[in-house]
Amino acid sequence: MLSLCRLSQNISNFKHVSPKSITLKLVRPNTSYANVIKSQKYKNQEGGEVIKWILLMIPVTSFGLGCWQVYRLRWKLELIDMLQAKSNATPVNIPNNFELLEKMEYMPVKVRGQFLHDKEILIGPRALIEHNTALPRTGTLISDPKKNQGWLVITPFKLSETGDIILVNRGWIPQSLRPKDKRQQSMVKDEIELTGVVRLTENRGPFMPKNHPEKGSWFYRDLHQMSAHLGSLPVWLDARGIPDPPEGWPIPNQTRVTLRNEHFSYIVTWYSLSGFTAVMWHRYFIRKLPLL
Description:
It is a multi-pass membrane protein. One of its GO terms (biological process) is mitochondrial respiratory chain complex IV assembly. It holds the Pfam family SURF1. This is SURF1-like protein. There is one protein chain. By secondary structure, the protein is of the alpha+beta class. It is 41% helix and 16% strand. It has 5 helices and 7 strands; from the N terminus they run ααβββαβββαβα. The chain has helices at 2-15, 19-87, 145-148, 223-230, 263-286, and strands at residues 92-93, 108-115, 121-126, 150-159, 165-174, 192-199, 236-239. Helix 2 (19-87) runs antiparallel to helix 5. The longest helix is centred in the N-terminal third of the chain and has 69 residues, at 19-87. It is elongated. It starts with a helix and ends in a 6-residue tail after the last helix.
């Protein structure tokens, strides 16, 4: 009976509640939900702005790398010019202290002595290097790759003054002159004076075979390995001479004064990437257009 009275009293009290108060109670949850949506939208906009400026670093960074490669290209060209100037300098006598040759690569030096033809070795196959020729020699890679295949004749050279033995790259011979009996006239036995360009040891390329001294197979210029095999000092000279020697003689001047120079391709790559990503960034974030 008491419970029924209380229920009746609650119903009576509910009848006197103002409609406005009910409306206010119903609106409050909607206002909170709107604030949540507004806050989330603001956070999304703020995150989008961060991503926007982070992505801008792609064209900016690639443009900077392109500028760096321009600097590197100028530096490499200047270095090549410097090496060319060194190789064309006036020849000097070879120093008695061979350790000084470590800083004299590409410089011409004069030596006097005698070739030890019985210890001659061949490096190859190698292509003929030509300098200052208007037309390529018959047998170059352009005309006939098979005829251009040849070998470098490496002969120990005993210095007259000290008796030390060094290595001299006498020059290039075609495949047909590989046997010694076909170039006997070129094997000078008298004491001579020659000019050669200092070269240091050569690192083996990633796809180049290893040298096999026991088989007489030489593919690259490893001065320490060669000197140990031939009983000489690890000193190497590229012989200089007339570009058109008598028939059967090695062709001298086989010094390639070049450095790996791929900076121009890097410049094109980085600047292209910078331009492309800058256009895409402007289209999407500034003009508000789709990427595709």
